[in-house]
Amino acid sequence: ELHTLWQNEERAAISSGKLNEIWHRRHDYWLLAGIVLHGYARWTDIQNDGAFGVINEPFKGEASKGNFLEMKNKFLARRFKLLEQALVIEEQLRRAAYLNMTQDPSHPAMALNTRFAEVECLAESHQHLSKESLAGNKPANAVLHK
């Protein structure tokens, strides 16, 4: 997910010519560097440190909003959680490779994964039914219920 997100963000930043104003992987790098220096969830300290000024660039247009700081801190916290999850997964993959671990296709968890993918596909293909159901379409409601 992270690599796809980075590609989309970077494409948007480059095509618009707003490399500092649109959050992308460079901002993530500086966010992680700020956390290393200032500590976990120390958003205010990171934002106030001039060395990490690039982190503030994407938010300059939002500064006039009343809940600006809360919105900015929540974004930084969510973005850090995404980066943190990616780092954890990367470490798990590194350990699995180091221990020469492989996935067993016959393991019950793999069957569960297959079923989950089927359910997700079904939900996506019937997404329009929820709108129809809310609009009062009784047949759509019945199909959605099943």
UniProtKB/TrEMBL annotation:
Show the Pfam families listed in the entry: CHDCT2
**Domain CHD C-terminal as annotated: residue spans:** 20-146
Known InterPro entries for this protein? CHD_C2
- The protein depicted here goes by the name CHD3 protein
Q: Which organism is it from?
A: Toxostoma redivivum (California thrasher)
Tell me the lineage of the source organism: Eukaryota, Metazoa, Chordata, Craniata, Vertebrata
